[in-house]
Please model this.
Amino acid sequence: MSGHEARLEHDLTAEQGERFREYIHEHSGIHLDDGRTDALRISLMTRATRFCHESLDHYYELLVADEAEFRELMNLITINETSFFRFPAQFDALRTFVVPEILDTRSPALGSFRTWSAGCSTGEEPYSIAMTLLDAGIDSLGHHAEVLGTDVSTHALERAKAGIYTPRSLLNVPHEIVTRYFEPTATGHRVTDPVRDVVDFRYQNLIKEPYPSALMGNWDVIFCRNVTIYFRIESTRRVVESLFERLNPGGYLFIGHSETLTGISDRFETVEVGGVFLHRKPTAAVRVSVPERPQSARAVAAAGAPQFPARAVEPGAPASEPSGAAAHLRAAQALADNGDFDAALERVTEAVRIDPALAAARYVLGLIHLRAGRTDDAVAEFGRTVGIDDDFVLAHLNLGNIHRARGEHAHACREYEAALRALERSPDGAWSEFLGGFDPEVLVMTCRRSLDHCSSMRERG
Amino acid sequence: MASARILAVDDSPTILAMLEEILVSAGYEVLTAEDGAEALESARNGKPDLILLDVMLPKLDGYRVCRLLKFDQKYKAIPIIMLTAKAEEQSMATGLRTGADQYLTKPVEPERLLEAVADELAKAEG
Model:
């Protein structure tokens, strides 16, 4: 491969294109035909350049080794891409296995067979699901099908609701399905009313909880395919956990053909049907029809009670009392740890609103401002922190660091000195939980060294 | 190899300041980064001899930073010590084949940290 290397910084050779196409096909089931070479080339260049790879061969090695990178690449290649019956084997599994299994155990009186298509884009997936459910004979068995498609793109949702598709988007749909479930119109093929009657659409951002009540629970099947590739792993875990809670016991989660729940959730049972891996919510945990003892929180959750794991307020802590502020603060810290600073800011602001004198909340608010580059706001919050608790060592330290970075050495010295005094007065104050387990002695040394540096700078200046 | 250059990466400015303190006191030269993208940039341009890498980082998490460096011919020789919050994260990191040279669980004792740094630098030298 070395023969290509110098030139390949700028282009994709036919041979490389073939290699990437084969790998992508093998691992995603997506075949990139010649018409999509540009999408492939642009996506490869974008990713390879981002990580300073010298050649696309080199980038290929990374792609093979790093599943996350593969997902990033596919994310780019398939932006907004969707089609009817994408990965047909999953729809076969739904029709031949999942629907019969679920209907087998329940009476039509228990309500609709409910399927949620999370991240439905322009509607191809929820309509495919509805067609599959109708094909499975749900109606003739006396059950009613209900399919909900949600997405974050209002533009995509408008197109989904219109339900009119070009002949090109129906290329992979069997002729017999086209004649049964579509009707030709002047602008394209329109999904027929019996299918449309089953499907509803609404806006929903998967990582913004709480979900509206319509999405709270009782889903038999959730399709969330190739959506999680947009999220960081922490957010993916939260989303999957949330979907788990919203499934009926015995319900199924369909994820993308190339996706895995390894390292994301171990709560599902994996079921293999015709080469397709499905993820079922266990039923055992909720066989509590005659509970002899109080149900565990987990069993209650599994039974469909709404839970918001990442944003859980401590049970029993009324939101209007100071303990509520502490719970919001803990949630904010967890969110900030996961890199979700917007949500963290929301929670810590709430904590400060409930208890304006909670020094730790002021400090965390300062850290979030600092992280977002709002240094003046950070200075103000750290200032308020030490106004409430002058012994909050870390607020003094951060103020010292900010002044030092601004070249305000006299100010910085005052803050480092204040930090050292506070350390002496209260070596295990409220601030110490933010030390990451380090010995306060290391902090003393850190403050002393910073003070020495600023003192010498001040003398020179 | 007390003059080695260490890149320390942590998203908490306080922890970062303390890591810096521990390393500088031991005679190392220290570069710092507060998020994954900055870490990658610094690893590529700052010529560190070793990287101390926290897992939870904004923008790109530590696992990904580690993989991207370890699968890059140019940088894969730089020893990487990952700092994880819990032991279970270590087994996960191993499972994810991050390619890190060593994992330390936080909180880490300064002596243990310096020992690991010295070990990895010696291995890289030898």
